[in-house]
Amino acid sequence: MNTMFDFLDRIQVQKEPRPEQYLGEDGLLYCGKCHTPVQCRITFEGKERIMPCICKCQKEERERQEQRMKEEEQLLYVRRLKAAGIQERHLQDWTFASATDTPSIQMAKRYTENWKKVKAENLGLLLWGDVGTGKSFLAACIANALLEKGVPVLMTNFSKILNQMGAMYSDERYRYIASFNRFSLLIIDDLGIERNTEYALEQVYAVIDERYKTGLPLIITTNLTISQLRNPEDVAHARIYSRVLEMCTPVHVPGHDRRTTIGKSKQELVKEVLFS
């Protein structure tokens, strides 16, 4: 108890007001800006003491600083999530802000807006359609929107995964596949373009099956048709596609090949700039 008394007695109490302060009728110092006390009276073990305290404007400034720090920490956290989750720089620019408002985009927005339910119910998507209809763009929009909310997302493809696993031993491969579990959402882009070797198909199945066991959502994009997915050419593909269709609800992404349109626009621009 004496230690507490000694501590309280050692606190230097301001006697005279500073230029921005004034002495109130109650004998306490007040802030001249917000007119709230910078001192207060406390009673400890029957003895009254005057102690320093924080006025309203100091408290508000402290709260603003704390809020700024939280916002800066959140920005840094999101930046790290994006660096880990989307390695291809151009994908980070594919956002809802740059998207045309189509039914597919509206669906994708609802997916992110209802993320808590999506995750709790393990609602995966299989985005399928012709080449160049914007399936990867749609998936990247979902990824970036969730990353902005601080949700860990990994967007990759099996070609990249298989290249990473190429020089790994079996234990290393297992740990690598298990590392995907730290992402709340896993997006696999362009299913069907990977190598069709026995080894490659085994690893593709291992990744999908591990995701299945975690009970976490999976989004897959593919140029394959639903008919191809439901009628695979062999048992190895059947295992993969059956698991995918169990985990992911097929969503058709309609449209024309945007790459062809972009190519034609560039050709016209080249003619205008260089040959006109």
Task: Chart the SSEs and their pairings.
Layout: H1 2-10, E1 21-23, E2 29-31, E3 39-44, E4 47-52, H2 56-85, H3 103-113, H4 115-120, E5 124-128, H5 135-148, E6 153-157, H6 158-165, H7 170-178, E7 185-191, H8 198-214, E8 218-222, H9 226-230, H10 235-247, E9 248-252, H11 258-275
Parallel strand pairs: 5-8, 5-9, 6-7, 7-8
Antiparallel strand pairs: 1-2, 3-4
Describe the 3D structure.
It contains 11 helices and 9 strands. With 276 residues, it is an alpha/beta fold. It folds into 2 domains: 35 residues, no CATH class; 168 residues, Rossmann fold, CATH 3.40.50. It has a 5-stranded parallel β-sheet. A two-stranded antiparallel ribbon has the order 1-2. α2 packs antiparallel against α5 and α8 runs parallel beside α10. The longest helix is centred in the N-terminal third of the chain and has 30 residues. It starts with a helix and ends with a helix. The model has no long low-confidence stretch (mean pLDDT 89). One of its GO terms (biological process) is DNA replication. InterPro entries: IstB_ATP-bd (IPR002611), P-loop_NTPase (IPR027417). It comes from Dorea formicigenerans. One of its GO terms (molecular function) is ATP binding. This is AAA family ATPase.
Q: What labels would you give this structure?
A:
276 residues, alpha/beta, Rossmann fold, 2 domains, five-stranded parallel beta sheet, 11 helices, ATP binding, IstB_ATP-bd
How would you concisely characterize the structure shown here?
One of its GO terms (molecular function) is ATP binding. The protein has helices at residues 2-10, 56-85, 103-113, 115-120, 135-148, 158-165, 170-178, 198-214, 226-230, 235-247, 258-275; strands at residues 21-23, 29-31, 39-44, 47-52, 124-128, 153-157, 185-191, 218-222, 248-252.
